[in-house]
């Protein structure tokens, strides 16, 4: 389980997250909702160890990992897929996946097995295995960014706005993969401005406003709350 305890984060003197308590258990998807600038990215980065200016604690399966840097947390099973699908445009799809395995020292057979597993989740990538990632569509690049994180077989996946700029059908396809992941016990923290899509695939959700968690409930509870739908789901 990932647990955030009384976590606060700042940039220089500016506080961005305040006293956040949150947990993600194995096999569940937790949606992290909030407007632009609410602090979702900072929260994910604080969990991943990318952002270090924090007080409070990040626990991983009961161990305090707050002092560990991002590389060490990745080795402990936390993988971040940053916003903006940061794939290596010049590298092929397969080379991007190899980058995901950097530092793991797996046998060639195990590598192929891992590639096979992620490509079966995103079959379209298989067809483009030797194509430079920069030539893929936005949706395919997002799939690749997620696949690159998944080849490490993380225990926890942190996704930052995977739906941004993508057509609803592609979003559905990408978020649909989370079900397969959670069935195998992966815990997912999904930061999204697209609350409807995120609550559709999550079991629980929290809403962040100005760095504070102002609401935490089951995803159904949030979806059926008129105040939440007015603010975050748009008027239908
Ligand atoms: P977005 O959807 O735009 O990424 P967010 O909810 O993820 O929004 P954050 O990116 O975590 O929000 O930003 C939270 C606050 O911290 C914002 O007010 C932002 O301007 C500020 N901020 C983010 N990065 C920095 C930085 N490197 N230096 C200073 N302030 C920052």
Automatic annotation (TrEMBL):
Taxonomy, superkingdom: Bacteria
SUPFAM superfamilies: P-loop containing nucleoside triphosphate hydrolases
Keywords annotated in UniProt: Amino-acid transport, ATP-binding, Nucleotide-binding, Transport
Transmembrane segments: none
Alphabetized GO MF terms: ATP binding
Domain ABC transporter per the UniProt entry, residue ranges: 2-235
Family to which this protein belongs: Belongs to the ABC transporter superfamily.
Protein name according to UniProt: ABC transporter ATP-binding protein
Protein species of origin: Nocardioides luteus
